[in-house]
Design brief:
Elements (H helix, E strand, L loop, with lengths): L7 E4 L5 H11 L7 E6 L8 H9 L3 E5 L5 H15 L6 E4 L14 H32 L11 E5 L18 H21 L5 E6 L19 H14 L8 E3 L8
Parallel strand pairs: 1-2, 1-4, 2-3, 4-5, 5-6, 6-7
Helix pairs in contact: 1-6, 3-4, 4-5
Length: about 260
Amino acid sequence: MGELAVHSVLVTGANRGIGLGLVQHFLGLPKPPKWVFAGCRDPKGQRAQELQRLASKHPNLLILALEVTDPASVKAAAARVGEHVGGSGLTLLINNAGIVKLNPIDAETLEDMSRVYTTNTIGPMLMGQAFLPLLKKAAQASPGSGLSCSKAAIINVSSDAGSIASPPAWEVLHAVSYRCSKAALNMLTRCQSLGYQEHGILCVTLHPGWVQTDMGSAAGFTPPLTVDVSVRGMLKVLSSLSEKDTGTFLDWEGKVVPW
């Protein structure tokens, strides 16, 4: 794996699953980031115990109270991160927080569709807006004109379930609101790549694979990938991204996913 030299990283939905795995792996890098920010809804709650244990061992890990659907919470988190990173800015923003509702198409509801879309699509939009000034600072502080995750980047964790061209496993799992929200997230990433490229910020959508998490196992099947394998793959992909990749939809092995 190429060396991923990141000064600071923020992971949302960091208290479990892929988010927790990302935090653990960033902390375990040969050259870990100076700051690892782990966002979750309730930093002192039962579900954040592993994060709390990690924070007690790693002084560069800061747990943030963060509800990505609440603009005030997002702005407060951005202010707190800014206090720590200062003029160096935030190098890498990983929008990982997400939810799923397993409704079939004929039982989808306004309430579930709205909630899933707000978390999975609007949340990453709000995060990108709030942290843009810090991402711009990171880009300005990094020499060179190329784009990379070591300079400044937004990584939106999506799913191939949002692929319009090739939607997987429809006969097994409808999850209409989830599929729609991820398809919209993919378009958001494309829009962010077009809007933020002039500021030196790379924007990519990443499919982590079908992973053994609470969400991945929600339909009653055992996913083929462990969190460790998925996260190792994603970090390898992140280390290799450049300006040619901005605005694209890739999986944990670096393969292009059909839109």
